[in-house]
């Protein structure tokens, strides 16, 4: 038995949800470029969960179900007062809040297909409310209830800021949600599938996935990119900053990918939005710094940017706090996690690989008093 480090190249499951073939990403056969340019996030949720695009009435039904389920149990809102909210990372708060949410769902452990589907609806609806309520409560503001007349993307920005977002903001945020929705067997989705393959519940699967997304080698990279842009500070500093990091053999966040070789097809959409939005805000230096970093890093390492790189300046231009970037990734990716959880349940087998043991050989037990 030999191990493949990081399971690189290992095919661990079949799936009908999304595919990456020759650097092309599709959701259920639809090219990501097409979906990003044309679809609402609600349509994409439906696509991932039902493996087909919705009719008008199917879309309306899902939209209504999401709207009806956005409110949080008061206990979940109250729990934000149990710790020092200003000191807590929002991803840790989200992970805990989702776990807590499971305690207030009397269907949490009901394993029927319909019950699991409705839990998916409830989680997809409530996660944006958790993120926006957390963000407001820590600023001493009251959470804002969603508006029935706004779509998913617009509602998120509205619940965060209390202001009705501009059409260009809604368009950009919707595109970002579509782009982050699913990505084959990435680390957090694999985590979710491993968890529920023990026939554990949907809340456990999503809680585990949030934990995996939090790390800077995965979803946490977008916040780290913004930290880097802040440190770089100006276009003039970008080249020396990157060359110095490379000299020290440090990783540059937002670059490289386990699967893509020529480039992440999602990055170009975010790059375009970054240019547009930073110009609109009179902060084009964030786009220009990013573009310079890309130029210098790619010339030196040959690694193109991934989805996390330009999403940082996009979210910054939308006025979003930098530590909310990864929770926003979760607001979108939960749609993919839930699709994979439902798919795993539908054809389940325990996921249990082997380890190639490399520890010591046979040893004799020595009582503690006799050990040197
Ligand atoms: C949504 C997402 O999860 S997208 C990914 C988000 N993560 C990041 O942006 C973090 C930065 N990137 C990385 O750490 C990696 O590219 C990963 C984690 C995305 C992929 O990792 P892996 O496939 O395991 O590649 P690994 O980390 O082994 O890198 C292979 C080589 O490229 C180098 N490399 C890869 N990415 C980077 C980077 N961003 N900066 C500098 N060097 C890099 C590694 O140092 C390594 O070099 P070596 O062979 O000389 O040691
Ligand atoms: O697929 C991966 O390894 C990481 C990624 O890009 C994603 O989850 O969107």
UniProtKB/TrEMBL annotation:
<comment type="pathway">
    <text>Carbohydrate metabolism; tricarboxylic acid cycle; isocitrate from oxaloacetate: step 1/2.</text>
</comment>
<dbReference type="InterPro" id="IPR016143">
    <property type="entry name" value="Citrate_synth-like_sm_a-sub"/>
</dbReference>
<dbReference type="GO" id="GO:0005829">
    <property type="term" value="C:cytosol"/>
</dbReference>
<dbReference type="InterPro" id="IPR024176">
    <property type="entry name" value="Citrate_synthase_bac-typ"/>
</dbReference>
<dbReference type="Pfam" id="PF00285">
    <property type="entry name" value="Citrate_synt"/>
</dbReference>
<keyword id="KW-0816">Tricarboxylic acid cycle</keyword>
<dbReference type="GO" id="GO:0036440">
    <property type="term" value="F:citrate synthase activity"/>
</dbReference>
<keyword id="KW-0808">Transferase</keyword>
<dbReference type="GO" id="GO:0005975">
    <property type="term" value="P:carbohydrate metabolic process"/>
</dbReference>
<dbReference type="InterPro" id="IPR011278">
    <property type="entry name" value="2-MeCitrate/Citrate_synth_II"/>
</dbReference>
<feature type="active site">
    <location>
        <position position="257"/>
    </location>
</feature>
<dbReference type="InterPro" id="IPR019810">
    <property type="entry name" value="Citrate_synthase_AS"/>
</dbReference>
<dbReference type="InterPro" id="IPR016142">
    <property type="entry name" value="Citrate_synth-like_lrg_a-sub"/>
</dbReference>
<comment type="similarity">
    <text>Belongs to the citrate synthase family.</text>
</comment>
<dbReference type="GO" id="GO:0006099">
    <property type="term" value="P:tricarboxylic acid cycle"/>
</dbReference>
<protein>
    <recommendedName>
        <fullName>Citrate synthase</fullName>
    </recommendedName>
</protein>
<dbReference type="InterPro" id="IPR002020">
    <property type="entry name" value="Citrate_synthase"/>
</dbReference>
<feature type="active site">
    <location>
        <position position="308"/>
    </location>
</feature>
<dbReference type="InterPro" id="IPR036969">
    <property type="entry name" value="Citrate_synthase_sf"/>
</dbReference>
